[in-house]
Amino acid sequence: MSITKKVSVLAVGLGMVGTLAACGSSSDDTGGSGSGGKTVTLVSHDSWAASKDVVAAFEKESGYKVRVLEDGDAGQAVNKAILTKDNPQGDVFFGVDNTLLSRALDNGLFQPYEAKGSDRVRPEYRADQDKHRVTPVDTGDICVNYDKAYFDRHGLTPPTSFDDLAEPAYKDLLVTENAGSSSPGLGFLLGTAAKYGDDGWEGYWKKLKANGVKVVDSWEQAYNEEFSGSAGGKKAKGDRPLVVSYASSPPAEVVYADPQPATAPTGVAEGTCFRQVEYAGLLSNAKNTEGGKALLDFLLSKTFQEDMPLNMFVYPVREGARVPEVFSKSGPQAKDPQTLDPAKIADHRDQWVKSWTSLVLK
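Request: output the structure for the sequence above.
Response:
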């Protein structure tokens, strides 16, 4: 999402991220990120966002200023956090999802902490329950989105399944992200592995490649530059009416439009969805561990969980947290998304990515 998707806001909404980062690094902060300091630093992918008043309330109550460091796409951010784990950039990392979780845990990225409110997280989203090294924060579905206007103009029925995407009618229409560097790109690959199995997913990607699938480095590039249905894609004259994005992307197109349309200009091919869960954790060598713990508690609070949907366009993981009506109208969660056991992802992910890279990019 992340589900993060992250988990994933449109470029037109990313101004809020910069505003939040600025408000968390004011000149009167003393103590830096040291133990007992007044600043707690959150390291995240580029799609982090939260309402200023919600963050301000946390800062007032906790006594900590929130500083946000954005570090690219989720996959890139996780890799960098692992490389810098001995001298981390911050105290808490947000944005590692179920596709990359084992990599972070196996590399000792996080230290144990059971955040307040963990007992209110829906059971299907919990992970690492014996050690509590990560805290579930949000969920979402990685799915193919389509440009409604394009398909109306061409009298073509939008695809609804993985199988459809390989049909000649959809040749040269799909853009996806690099599975080796992008969280949604990896999620889409895992969705095909779940759908077609160990013996079938490579054959499926051969069909997609023959059908003209385009691969770019990041979600931002795919969605906001290549995809003809997004606000950013229209400005960039994107020519791909199918994109790997999120089930919650259509509500974002409604919310950020001026004036807001009655219905979303984009739709979701529900038979292409893979369920994503995003986590946060206290970094193993965090300098401000108490501030980090307070921040993790905040991420599970009902206030933050209900603030997330219209900022990061993901679903809350906390039981009882309300979801805006625009989500139920334009971006409901998939009824039957593809899923994979985390242990299988851990055992096969790197080899799958290696095989995918050799097959699709060379």
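The CA atoms of residues 254 and 261 lie 6 Å apart.
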